[in-house]
Amino acid sequence: MPTAATAPPRDYRAEFPIFRRTVYLNSCSLGALSVRSRARVNECLDLWERLGAAAWYEIWWAALADLRARYARWIGAAAGSIALHPNISTALASVAESLDYRRRPRVVVTSLDFPTLAYQWLARAGEGVEVVMVESPDGVSLPVEALARAVDGRTALLATSHVFFSTGAIQDLRALADVAHARGALLLVDGYHGAGQVPVDVAALDVDFYCSGGLKWMLGGPGIAFLYARPELWPALHPRATGWFAHRDQFRFDPRTLEPHDDARRLEGGTPAMTAVYAQLGGLDVLEELGSEAIRRRTMALTEDLIAQACAAGLEPRVATRPEERSGIVMLPRANPAGDVRRLAEAGIVTDTRPGHVRVSPYFYNVPDDHRAAIERLTRD
C-alpha cells in the first residue's frame, strides 16, 4: 500500500477533474486530462483566434522546439534527437522506410507487442522483408534468451516494447540492445507504455530508436507522439515516407531538391497539430514537477496494492513474477470481461478490456480506495 514516502508531495487528484465524478483506472488507454493541459489548449486557441497564422512565426514555432527539447530531457536524449509525429504508426513508418533490407531482410518482433509494430513490416513483405515472430512461453513476458535466439546476422531490426500493453511486463532494454548490437542489428523500442510511468534513459540503455507520445502515460492526449533516433544514425537515415518539416530549409519551398535536416527532424512529416502540442506541454508541466523516479515509486506501490487486493478477493492477476518487472497495468482474467467493464462503468469506475481480461491501470493520481471500489464491484455477485 502507498506510504507517505511514495505518495505525491501534494494531492494531484485536484489537477484532474475526472476524479470529481469517476474512479478512473484506465490510464493505459488514455491519460486523465489535467487542468494544466486544458489551460494550455485554451492558450493555443486564444492565440489562433487573436493572431491567426501569425501565431506560427511569433509563438508556435518556439513551442515545437520547446516540446522536442522537453521530450529529449524526459528520456535522457541528446539535443536534436527528437522528431515529432502525430502517432506511433507514422513514427514507425519513418524508421521502416529508412532501412536497407537487401542484406538484412529480417525484422524480429514478439507476440506480446502491440500489433502496430508487426504491421509496419508485414506490410513490406512484398519488398522481401521477413517478419520473425517470437512467441512468449508464458503469455506474460519474454526471456532475453528467446529474443537472442531469433536475432542473427540477417536481422536489420529488433522491434519490441518497453512495457507490454497486454501484460504490463517491463523488458530489460539494455540487455536487448546488447543482443541486437552484438549481431549488427538495430533496436527499436515502442515506449508508449514506458515513458511517463517508467524512467527512461536512452543513452544508458543504448537503444537506437525509441518512440512514445502523449496519449497514455505522458498525459498529452491523442495527436502527438515522438521518435528518438540515436545521433550516430542520423546521416544514414533517408526515409521515403517524409514531409516538408523534414527539409532543413522548408520555407524555401523548393520542390526540386529534398535536403533533410542534419538531426532527427529529418524523420518528421507534415505540420503538427498545435492543440495536441499544447496539451502535451501541459502534461509535461505535471510530470516534470513530480519527476520520473517519484512517479515510478508511486505507481509501483499502487500496482502492488491493486494486486494484493485482487488476490485477497480471490482473483488471479496475470502479471510479471517480480514486482520490479511490473508496471501500472494489471490484467485480471475474467469469463466475461466486456460485461464486467460495463458493470464497472455503470458504477462510475472506468477500466478497459482485452481478450479474456479486465485491464486495470493505476497511475500516480490514483489511491488505494480506487482499487477497493473496483475489486468490490467486480467480485459482487
Description:
Helix 1 (35-51) runs antiparallel to helix 8 (274-290). A 7-stranded mixed beta sheet has the order 2-8-7-6-5-3-4, with helices on both faces. Strand 6 (186-190), helix 7 and strand 7 (209-213) form a beta-alpha-beta unit. The chain has 381 residues and is of the alpha/beta class. The chain is built from 11 helices and 12 strands. It folds into 2 domains: 12-32 and 292-378, Aspartate Aminotransferase, domain 1 (Alpha-Beta Complex), CATH 3.90.1150; 42-287, Aspartate Aminotransferase, domain 2 (3-Layer(aba) Sandwich). The protein starts with 22 loop residues before the first strand and ends with a helix. The chain has helices spanning 35-51, 54-74, 88-96, 115-122, 144-150, 173-182, 202-205, 274-290, 292-312, 337-346, 368-378, and strands at 23-24, 82-85, 106-110, 130-134, 155-161, 186-190, 209-213, 225-229, 330-333, 349-350, 352-354, 357-360.
